[in-house]
Design brief:
single chain, alpha+beta, GMP Synthetase, Chain A, domain 3, 3-stranded mixed beta sheet, Mitotic spindle-associated MMXD complex subunit MIP18, chromosome partition, MIP18
């Protein structure tokens, strides 16, 4: 980060990571129907990196298992995320990162909805509207610079 760029949340609070999901003998059995659940959705997004810090969204408490809802039978996933500060300028970018990760990882049958946790951001309504607009999301993901930043959040080990 150059000297001109300034962190909004210089000293974020870091939270403990959840343990690994306990596997059962049927987890790898293709003959057993295993519907998606909230923990699986959380596991998909928990390691996304914050755009400003070398920390995961889980470590910053931006995403939690309790903020992930899934209805396998209705093909619907909802993830609420909580920015670390009420005026976080990276909230749209974080929402796009979560949305892209889920769209890449989940079967196409799922409708994915990503929103800011109610009451946690000054521009919550506007950002939620942006994240729900398929055309705006598609246009944002066509922006090479923005896509590069999102990919660094999704794949931090490949970041330069």
């Amino acid at each position: 980060m150059s000297g001109k760029e300034r962190l909004e949340n210089v000293n974020p609070h870091i939270f403990a990571k959840a343990g690994q999901r306990m596997e059962t003998p049927t987890d790898w059995d293709d003959d057993v129907y295993d519907p998606f659940d909230a923990r699986e959705i959380f596991d998909l997004v928990r390691n996304i990196r914050d755009p400003e810090h070398p920390l995961s969204l889980e470590e910053l408490n931006v995403v939690e298992v309790g903020q992930c809802d899934v209805s396998d039978e209705e093909n619907y996933v909802m993830v609420h995320f909580t920015p670390t500060i009420p005026h976080c300028s990276m909230a749209s970018l974080i929402g796009l990162s979560i949305r892209l990760k889920l769209l890449q990882a989940l079967p196409a049958r799922f409708k994915v909805d990503v929103r800011i946790t109610p009451g946690t951001h000054a521009s919550e309504h506007a950002i939620n509207k942006q994240l729900a607009d398929k055309e705006r999301v598609a246009a944002a993901l066509e922006n090479p610079h923005l896509l590069e930043v999102i990919n660094k959040c999704l794949h931090p080990q490949n970041a330069a």
